[in-house]
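Milestone 3.1: sequence recovery, worked example.
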């Protein structure tokens, strides 16, 4: 099962907390104290210990293949204790948080991949960090109350990881950040930056980069595989999940799962079956069913902010049944592959190559590659390249989403635009790499789609720290080489993938089912959105949503994706209001 934890630190001069009562209310086990901090987890075994601190979650040695550590050798523990941040960031990787006390100050660190969530709150008597917002509520640290400004910001930020959440008093500690308790307050700062790994060593050929990438992905995926006994892997017949499948072969008892739409363009089963037949895996193939998607249920109900899409319920239902029937203790995906492998459809690689090599590089080949990949003419590519920002620290601007937000909501969110420290690139950074970093950021939004109380651990091997760091070092013009996307990753696994998968360029999706779901429930959808909390609080533009819900418009526009987000957000609001009692609706202010 996924690691859940609760860290409690007395505040205001208090020395004791009712740990036994909190453990009973939350169903957690009290393990130990680090300085004044108390640790509770859902695991029976002890966390990894080092002098003055401990690690909660899965920790792996940086090199080679090996299962997650169950204990630290004495020499390793001593080395970590002497320099926690440097040792964890450079000698290890995994999905974890670390807790230690140094000089009377308590520090909590969240690993760079962001695979283990970390939220914190403060009360008059304690500061608490937890894997789940529900644990902060259960411990009595915070009362569940919706932060309507935070909800509006989440909808506007469009999947950008933020420290702000949709609950009052609940803050997220961002990936690659650490928080130190200073005079009863939380001081957060960055300890890991993707920009430290962006390099353009042109002496390393694309072929060598592919070899390095194949080795690192293989080692990370198999290390994860060695940590579990029985798992289900989601395969879509696309490149990323297929790469994970090839790496996991022979490491654990594995079954594959795929789901398709009735509409042929969303039918992934033939591709998934070719992959599974090649690798010798069993495949469970299902079709999206309307009965599995209740528009009154949120896919993000366990998280402290909205952000899911309602049609995801129809994916999760058969998957969760399969995991239960198989007794699987892990669920693997290829999530994040497009992001880390840098699936680019822009002219930025051409700009990067020019800025890095001048006219000495083979710009013509890259120009042709982008044209073959995108279908754009050479002049269109040049026009786009000239528009790419090349100066200053904002070489990539996050695409914010104002669709269906009210004028009042926009006045609030635009007055304090969302940001993230990773988007502030060094002055000499290349614009293609700025976009790559943004893509990796976007992947983090979907890391925690499953409630950690479920009896399995979700794993995205392609978002492992060593994979991210290596991919950041690969020049952006390498990834479109030959006129194909993710070309370095394709080359790395070319001899391990069936040609049908390796050479596939277009992949289906659940779009037709998503539209069908809205159409089949249109009267209820209209009621929930037009008479719901988002409308009552003045967050959404009532007239714009009403227009988008016209039956003929649903089938001809792409607005359905945003409507499903709003629909899931209404269900998320219902969940958290039910935990706190429903207040009288007031306008956003």
């Amino acid at each position: 099962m996924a690691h859940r934890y609760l860290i409690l630190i007395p505040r205001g001069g208090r020395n004791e907390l009712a740990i036994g009562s909190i453990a009973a209310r939350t169903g957690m086990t009290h393990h130990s104290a680090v300085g004044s901090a108390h640790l509770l987890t859902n695991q029976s075994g002890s966390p990894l210990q080092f002098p003055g601190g401990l690690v909660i979650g899965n920790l792996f040695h940086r090199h080679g293949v090996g299962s997650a550590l169950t204990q630290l050798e004495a020499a390793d523990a001593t080395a970590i204790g002497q320099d926690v941040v440097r040792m964890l960031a450079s000698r290890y990787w995994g999905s974890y948080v670390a807790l230690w006390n140094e000089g009377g100050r308590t520090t909590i660190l969240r690993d760079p991949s962001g695979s283990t969530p970390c939220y914190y709150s403060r009360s008059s008597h304690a500061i608490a960090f937890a894997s789940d917002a529900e644990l902060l509520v259960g411990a009595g640290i915070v009362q569940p109350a919706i932060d309507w400004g935070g909800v509006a910001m989440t909808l506007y930020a469009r999947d950008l990881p933020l420290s702000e959440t949709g609950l009052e008093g609940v803050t997220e500690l961002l990936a690659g950040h650490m928080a130190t308790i200073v005079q009863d307050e939380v001081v957060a700062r960055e300890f890991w930056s993707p920009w430290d790994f962006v390099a353009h060593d042109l002496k390393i050929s694309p072929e060598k980069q592919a070899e390095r990438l194949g080795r690192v992905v293989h080692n990370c995926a198999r290390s994860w595989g060695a940590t579990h006994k029985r798992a289900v892997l989601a395969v879509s017949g696309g490149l990323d999940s297929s790469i994970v499948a090839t790496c996991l072969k022979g490491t654990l008892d594995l079954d594959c799962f795929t789901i398709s739409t009735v509409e042929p363009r969303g039918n992934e089963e033939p591709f998934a079956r070719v992959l599974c037949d090649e690798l010798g895996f069993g495949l469970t193939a299902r079709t999206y069913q309307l009965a599995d998607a209740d528009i009154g249920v949120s896919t993000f109900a366990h998280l402290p902010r909205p952000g899911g899409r309602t049609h995801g319920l129809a994916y999760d239902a058969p998957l969760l049944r399969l995991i239960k029937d198989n007794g699987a203790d892990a669920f693997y995906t290829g999530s994040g592959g497009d992001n880390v492998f840098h699936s680019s459809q822009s002219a930025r690689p051409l700009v990067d190559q020019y800025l890095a090599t001048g006219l000495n590089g083979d710009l013509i080949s890259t120009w042709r590659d982008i044209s073959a990949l995108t279908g754009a003419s050479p002049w269109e590519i040049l026009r786009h390249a000239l528009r790419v920002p090349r100066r200053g620290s904002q070489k990539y601007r996050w695409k914010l989403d104002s669709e269906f937000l009210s004028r009042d909501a926009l006045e609030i969110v635009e007055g304090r635009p969302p940001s993230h420290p990773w988007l502030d690139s060094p002055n000499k950074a290349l614009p293609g790499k700025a976009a790559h970093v943004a893509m990796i950021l976007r992947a983090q939004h979907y890391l925690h789609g499953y409630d950690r109380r479920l009896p399995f651990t979700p794993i995205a091997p392609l978002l492992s720290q060593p994979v991210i760091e290596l991919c950041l070092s690969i020049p952006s013009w390498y990834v479109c080489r030959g006129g194909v996307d993710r070309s370095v990753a394709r080359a790395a696994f070319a001899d391990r993938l069936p040609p049908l998968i390796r050479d596939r360029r277009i992949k289906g999706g659940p779009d037709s089912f998503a539209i069908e779901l809205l159409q089949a429930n249109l009267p209820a959808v209209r009621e929930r959105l037009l008479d719901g909390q988002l409308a009552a609080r003045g967050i959404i533009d009532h007239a714009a949503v009403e227009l988008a819900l016209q039956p003929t418009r649903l089938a001809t526009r792409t607005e359905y994706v945003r409507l499903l987000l709003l629909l899931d957000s209404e269900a998320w609001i219902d969940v958290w209001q039910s935990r706190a009692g429903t207040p009288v609706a007031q306008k956003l202010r």
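Residues 342 and 377 are 22 Å apart (CA to CA). The first strand starts at residue 5 and ends at 10.
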